[in-house]
Design goal:
Radius of gyration of chain A: 22 Å
Structural class of chain A: alpha+beta
Largest sheet of chain B: 7 strands, mixed
CATH topology of one domain in chain A: Butyryl-CoA Dehydrogenase, subunit A, domain 2
Strand order of the largest sheet of chain A: 1-4-5-8
Number of helices of chain A: 14
Radius of gyration of chain B: 21 Å
CATH architecture of one domain in chain A: Beta Barrel
Shape of chain B: globular
Oligomer: heterodimer
Bound molecules: flavin-adenine dinucleotide
Largest interface: A-B, 48 and 41 residues
Strand content of chain A: 5-15%
Order of helices and strands of chain A: HHHHHEEEEEEEEHHHHHHHHH
CATH superfamily of one domain in chain A: Butyryl-CoA Dehydrogenase, subunit A, domain 2
Helix content of chain B: 40-55%
Order of helices and strands of chain B: HHHHHHEEEEEEEHEEHHHH
CATH class of one domain in chain A: Mainly Beta
Number of domains of chain B: 3
Number of strands of chain A: 8
Chain lengths: 417, 378
């Protein structure tokens, strides 16, 4: 068989949609068909709900879906990170048990990584998991856990060995969130939304098969999750597609967006809403102001070159070439873009930038951008951590002297952490 | 767009390797220092090899005019490598500016007559465009072209003319007496040593690129292209030159980043390599980001020119704006990371810093190009 080409794949996708699409189907039933046919995640392997296509071809399929107006599999939110991580590190039990329900949207997930005492220093986690007979018993606290209040399952990083060096004493689990030992408290954010939570774990139970990877391998697996989070930062952010049409399936998708996906409602705003800048500058007439023009142009230079840089990285990957430095820069670039966009929106709004809610421009949407952008340079690894990674891994600059080697038990850490 | 639109082909990568090896040989910092001090500003032997062995002047010139018929992408690669090596040569003036003006402004017969020599590197030309006002818009041209016989009499001044003292012939942009704005502009061509031209070298901040002041006292010139129809072709040639310059600049910026990182790994202070301090580490990471973004923009602009994309002028301005800030930022950071030694004449960093500074202004600075870009987007 020859390599599938883009035009062929697009035509195949269109033909499949034409044959199977029915807007009166239930959302879960439709997504089940996508999961079973491989058209929902075409770049996943054929054995696991995919078609084994290159990422670029999979994007072409996405475009066909968008053009057709068809609903896709559940791609938004942490569940996608769960899918990617389990696909890479899970065993057949995990894949059978979870992947299809992730794609149909039947299960919702959260990421239980950050703790009050360890955020950037993720490997400093002190939530503990101890084996007790056939179960792991978990005690500790997680924080900033997006969507925990809706979640059925959590990706949990917990310490299983206190005598090993800190990166080697961690194990990766799937935690059932619907159990008595898990208490979730919503936290209100500076933008007024409450999408992240505190999660208190008190003798929470995990059955043995829900451990992912070997004991002590948790750090390596967490890196996979983070890599997908950072790489897919745009996927996580881009959400709230306009409702596409009439029919049961659209209504069910809209209902999902309003409930389960509600925590991500403001994510497009935190990326700065670059798409709104030029139209707003034109509509308000502020485009005539030279200072506004410079700010808008600065943003566009940044945003477009960041986009092309990501395309260069992807192109190398697709052509099977060694990854250049471009691939590590996306997250840091996104922070710059978000800030430049917020700046441009501020200049365009003028005095109206002081107003929020129905008094503010676009019914408060601009205000929401201004107070959501600060999350971009923190969530998923701060800008400072990204710079450390780029400098050490890409440029090969020497690491800082470490104060945290030796058994984790003896490593200095936050009081109470 | 397909993946190939965002990466170089294997042939292009080989071409880059060849260019880098050659330029590494002929343009080490010692050679740069030697030729930047010379009056002509370049080594004729290197120019010969550049033109004959590598065919650099012919890269993007169509085969019908004696060129190699490659695209603007290959030109961008060559320029990037020249910028990296800080090659001292009248390349940008002749192979980019003058060649572009002839390509877009000249008639078929003029292209046949002029381009083969430029493509072979046997003759060199420059574009005399800017004037003492320092503007980069075509509207700023004040040099007058008074029709006499079948040609023109030129009166006025040109300034910031690249390699104006060494060019074999000059393409001057001049206007019909009494005309204004973009109207009445013509391209005029005359030998560099024509009667009635006075050529004076300017002392330039960046000695690796020579600038001249030209005074025209009734010098006789021939028309090039359509009389009084030069505005549109000139704008196009200038936009393409901005894309070309952006590619040259990102080569220099990458060199500054490499140099800064190398030094940060070498230099010890406080019992550690300075590259282990976050103040230095984060500066390097930021440089990498800026340089990679600027490269992406420069590559995209070159591809747009190659594809004759209607967006090409906007993308060229975008790329020039990005490269202006990235190159200067990288050069300044490179000096900073070198500490006291970075401020010396002996250390090579200042050579690139000066090229970065001068290139920032050449063809219009970042703010100017952001404004041009906005006009295209409105
Ligand atoms: C909107 C949002 C959603 C989130 N969702 C989740 C989620 O779903 N699941 C989850 O597990 N976490 C989530 N997080 C948490 C996020 O990953 C952490 O906030 C982040 O990693 C930073 O950790 P921290 O808050 O503990 O800050 P700290 O690590 O305490 O950092 C404080 C400051 O110190 C700096 N710093 C720390 N270490 C270094 C260093 N080595 N060098 C230089 N500077 C340093 C940081 O850059 C920062 O500026 C979310 C955060 C936000 C804002
Ligand atoms: C114009 C000029 C005049 C001068 N005049 C005098 C004079 O009259 N008398 C005199 O004694 N000296 C003089 N100096 C020297 C000047 O004080 C030193 O150049 C300066 O202190 C930096 O030291 P260095 O050159 O060894 O660079 P380094 O110390 O090697 O620094 C290299 C880079 O590493 C950074 N770096 C070093 N340590 C750290 C750290 N711990 N954390 C973060 N970053 C770090 C520096 O900021 C710099 O960017 C002069 C320098 C100049 C440029």
């Amino acid at each position: 068989m020859t390599e599938p080409n883009e035009a062929g794949v697009r035509a195949q996708a269109r033909a499949w949609l034409a044959e199977h699409w029915d807007a009166e189907r239930s959302l879960v039933a439709w997504r089940g068909m996508l999961a079973d046919s491989g058209w929902g995640m075409p770049h996943w392997p054929e054995q696991w709900h995919g078609r084994g296509l290159a990422v670029a071809l999979s994007q072409a399929v996405d475009e066909e879906f968008a053009q057709f107006g068809a609903v896709g599999v559940a791609k938004m939110g942490i569940r996608l990170l769960a899918g990617a991580t389990l696909l890479e590190h899970g065993d057949d039990f995990h894949k059978e048990r979870f992947l299809r329900r992730i794609l149909t949207g039947e299960d919702t997930w959260c990421q239980l990584f950050s703790e009050p005492g360890s955020g950037s220093d993720l490997a400093g986690a002190t939530t503990r998991a101890d084996l007790d007979g056939d179960n792991w018993v978990v005690n500790g606290q997680k924080v900033w856990t997006t969507s925990a209040h809706h979640a059925d399952y959590g990706l949990l990083l917990a310490r299983t060995d206190w005598d090993a060096p800190k990166h080697q004493g961690l194990t990766y689990f799937v935690l059932n969130m619907r159990q008595p030992g898990v208490e979730v408290r919503q936290l209100r954010q500076m933008n007024g939304h409450a999408s992240f939570n505190e999660v208190f774990l008190t003798d929470a139970k995990i059955e043995r098969p829900y451990r992912v990877g070997a004991v002590g391998q948790g750090w390596r697996i967490a890196m996979t999750t983070l890599a997908h989070e950072r790489r897919g930062a745009d996927g996580l952010r881009g959400s709230a597609r306009e409702r596409l049409g009439e029919g049961r399936i659209y209504a069910e998708e809209a209902a999902e967006t309003a409930t389960l996906m509600e925590p991500y409602k403001w994510y497009p705003q935190r990326a700065g809403r670059v798409d709104l800048v030029l139209p707003r500058a034109r509509e308000t007439g502020r485009i005539a102001d030279p200072a506004v023009r410079q700010a808008v142009a600065r943003l566009l230079v940044l945003a477009r070159s960041a986009e092309w840089t990501a395309r260069r990285a992807r192109a190398d990957q697709e052509l099977g070439r060694p990854q250049g430095p471009e691939g590590s820069l996306g997250k840091l670039a996104a922070s710059h873009v978000a800030r430049a966009a917020a700046h441009a929106h501020t200049l365009i709004a003028g005095a109206d930038a002081m107003l929020a809610g129905d008094d503010g421009p676009l019914d408060g949407l601009i205000a929401e951008i201004l107070v959501s952008v600060p999350a971009t340079s923190i969530a998923g690894g701060t800008d400072e951590i990204q710079r450390n990674i780029i400098a050490e891994r890409v440029l090969g600059l020497p690491r800082e002297p470490r104060m945290d080697s030796g058994p984790f038990r003896d490593v200095p850490r936050n009081v109470g952490g | 767009m397909p993946a190939t639109a965002f990466s170089f082909t294997d042939e292009q990568r080989q071409f880059r390797d060849v260019a880098r090896r050659f330029l590494g040989d002929v343009s080490p910092p010692t050679a740069v220092r030697e030729w930047m001090e010379s009056a002509s500003g370049f080594d004729p032997a290197v120019w010969d090899r550049l033109a004959k062995e590598l065919g650099f002047c012919a890269i993007h010139v169509p085969e019908a005019y004696g060129g190699q018929g490659f695209s603007f992408v290959e030109l961008g690669i060559a320029l990037e490598e020249m910028g990296r090596a800080l090659l001292c040569a009248p390349y940008f003036s002749s192979a980019v500016l003058a060649t572009g003006a002839i390509q877009h402004g000249g008639s078929e017969a003029e292209k046949m007559a002029l381009l083969p020599d430029l493509a072979a590197g046997t003759r060199r030309a420059t574009l005399a465009f800017t004037e003492p006002s320092g503007g980069w818009d075509v509207e700023q041209v004040a040099l007058t072209a008074t029709p006499v016989g079948g040609g023109y009499r030129l009166d006025g001044e040109k300034r910031f003319v690249l390699d104006g003292c060494t060019a074999d012939f000059i393409i001057a942009v001049a206007r019909a007496p009494g005309s204004r704005g973009a109207d009445g502009l013509s391209l005029c061509i005359l030998p560099g040593d024509a009667k009635g031209i006075e050529r004076r070298p300017l002392r330039s901040l960046d000695p690796t690129r020579k600038l001249a002041h030209l005074t025209f006292h009734g010098a006789r010139a021939a028309p090039l292209g359509e009389p009084e129809g030069a505005a549109a072709p000139l704008k196009r040639a200038l936009a393409e030159a901005a894309a070309a310059l952006a590619n040259e600049m990102v080569g220099g910026a990458q060199r500054m980043l490499d140099s800064a990182v190398d030094y940060a790994k070498l230099r010890m202070q406080f019992g550690r390599q300075i590259g282990s301090f976050q103040a230095i580490k984060h500066k390097c990471a930021d440089m990498l980001l800026e340089v990679e973004l600027a490269k992406s923009a420069a590559y995209r602009a070159a591809a747009a020119v190659a594809e004759d994309d209607t967006d090409a002028p906007a993308l060229a301005s975008l790329a020039k704006a990005s490269a202006s800030e990235a190159y200067l930022g990288a050069a300044a950071a490179c000096i900073q990371i070198h500490g006291g030694i970075g401020f010396t004449w002996e250390n090579d960093t200042h050579l690139w810093f000066k090229r970065a500074k001068a290139s920032e202004a050449l063809l219009g600075d970042a703010a100017y190009h952001r404004e041009l870009m906005m006009r295209h987007m409105q």
